[in-house]
Amino acid sequence: MNQQNRDFKQSALSVIAIEQQAISELTQYIDDNFVAACELILSCKGKVVVCGMGKSGHVGNKISATLASTGTPAFFMHPAEANHGDLGMLTEQDVLLAISNSGETSELLALLPVVKRLGVPIIAMSNSTANTLARYADVNLCIRVRQEACSLGLAPTSSTTATLVMGDALAVALLNARGFTTEDFALSHPGGSLGRKLLLSLNDIMLTNERLPLVNPQQTLSQVLVEISRKGLGMAGIADSAGKLIGIFTDGDLRRVLDARIDVHNVAIEQVMTANCITAPPTMLAAEVLKIMEKRKINSLFVVDETGRPIGAINMQILLQAGII
After folding, report:
1. pLDDT band at 188 (very low <50, low <70, confident <90, very high)
2. Bridge partners of 237?
3. Close Cβ partners of 75 (under 8 Å, ≥ 6 residues apart)
């Protein structure tokens, strides 16, 4: 390894160590002010309007997005644009989350008289209680760091990381307080893989009708094997005269039968099927079914209605194609 490579690695390790320390020291600021900020937001009848300039603005954008996706309505308002008309976004029902490490960002401070006139509560994120922003705020969340990870001590590095972590702490504390569920989370992420995993039910993806491999109890095992091969699901369901599922036969069962030297041409499937098989209702989420299948070490199962009639089938390949796996 040449000297330049060693220098690159040493620089990176130094940054990580400094920022780890900054995050660790942030725990001292999870105090009564943090609780007060959470209570302000929980009682808010409008939205959390996040505001910050420069790097604080970039972090603020992410914080507002995290809040919005975890049950706290929020959006980002650029302070420079707010000084030229966008302050109209802010209503008396809202809470302003103003981010400035120094607490002296001029674009933010220019907004405070109007915000105060509206009676909008202000939560500040800054490095002390002695700056202008903190003095005007109803609550100040301290994000002070001992040093920036930048070797010049100039570029916002540790301070922006601390701000981001404080924002995440706020969002998750509020998520827990609201009793926000995985289903709630999916509703705000319908277009991505998270939404697919959490919102798709078996009704949406199961095979139905003529694609179901179903046989009657009197059919021979050899006839059932033909049906399994024809439908390609690695299983067949056995239904009684009323159409109720009474058992299942899978590729795994075939290996067991062959080991027992059973005549596949003469034995009835009801004699070798697995009764009381695992099934699922059509309204069950596909993600839940995946957990069941993984836990029980099965690759496929039937979907049944409230009377026990098979109305669908699912296997790991279908879950994979649907983006659940």
Report:
1. low
2. 214, 248
3. 47, 49, 50, 64, 68, 89
Strand-strand pairing, 245-250 and 235-239: antiparallel
Q: Which amino acid is at 217?
A: P
Q: How far apart, in whole angstroms, are the C-alpha atoms of residue 87 and residue 120?
A: 12
SS3 277: coil
By the 8 A CB rule, do 147 and 158 touch? yes
pLDDT tens-digit profile of 82-129?
Answer: 999 899 999 999 999 999 999 999 999 999 999 999 999 999 999 999
Please give the distance of CA 122 from its chain centroid, rounded to a whole number.
Answer: 29
For residue 25, what are the contacts with CB-CB under 8 A and spacing of at least 6?
145, 146
Token pair belonging to 183: 């289903």
Paired with 49 in beta bridges are: 75, 96
Q: Which two tokens stand for residue 232?
A: 């390609």
Backbone phi, psi, residue 256, to 5° = -65, -40
